[in-house]
Design brief:
By secondary structure, the protein is α+β, with helices and mostly antiparallel strands. The chain folds into two domains: about 60 residues; about 80 residues, no CATH class. It contains five helices and four strands, in the order ααααβββαβ. Strands 1, 2, 3 and 4 form a four-stranded antiparallel sheet that branches. A hairpin with a 3-residue loop joins β2 and β3. α2 packs across α4. The longest helix has about 45 residues. The radius of gyration is 29 Å and the shape is rod-shaped. Keywords: Membrane, Transmembrane, Transmembrane helix.
């Protein structure tokens, strides 16, 4: 009987469990809070990404109409507009400059890869810096800024 009594003495009594449940609940709420903050930040970044895609689509659509003027005077219009890298970059940049920045987007710009593909298709690449709404400063300090880069294509046909 003596080993059983020793074992019983080692087991925690019910009165010793008080306070441990509070720690578990606090840990649960801490994890739950991190999940909520993370979900809100990821959703905000995805929404900002969609708005950057919309801006890139608008810039590509405008750039597809930006015919290279030198080719218009020498070769005429033809069935498709002839684009140049310079005209696509200029019109895409001007279109982005006119657009209002979406929420949580700190800035955006037309980046390398923007130009005229085969002199027919306007390809616009836009890179944006997104600031998460909750604890964005802490996240930026720890992990750096969130960069979103999107690409859009557009082609104009002459009818």
């Amino acid at each position: 009987m003596r080993p059983f009594a020793t074992l019983l003495a080692r087991l925690p009594r019910r009165a010793d469990d008080r306070g441990r449940v509070v720690l578990l609940i606090a840990g649960l709420f801490g994890i739950l809070g991190m999940l909520i903050v993370g979900g809100i930040n990821v959703t905000a970044i995805q929404l900002a990404r969609l708005q950057v895609i919309d801006a890139a689509d608008a810039a590509a659509a405008n750039a597809a109409d930006a015919a290279d003027e030198s080719s218009l005077y020498t070769g005429g219009v033809g069935s498709q507009l002839t684009l140049s890298d310079a005209s696509v970059r200029q019109v895409a940049g001007a279109t982005l400059a006119r657009e209002d920045l979406p929420a949580h987007v700190l800035g955006w710009q037309v980046v390398d890869g923007t130009g005229a593909q085969d002199s027919r298709v306007a390809v616009v690449r836009v890179s944006a810096v997104v600031h998460p709404p909750l604890l964005g400063g802490v996240m930026s300090g720890l992990f750096g800024d969130v960069h979103v880069t999107v690409q859009s294509r557009a082609e104009a046909h002459v009818h």
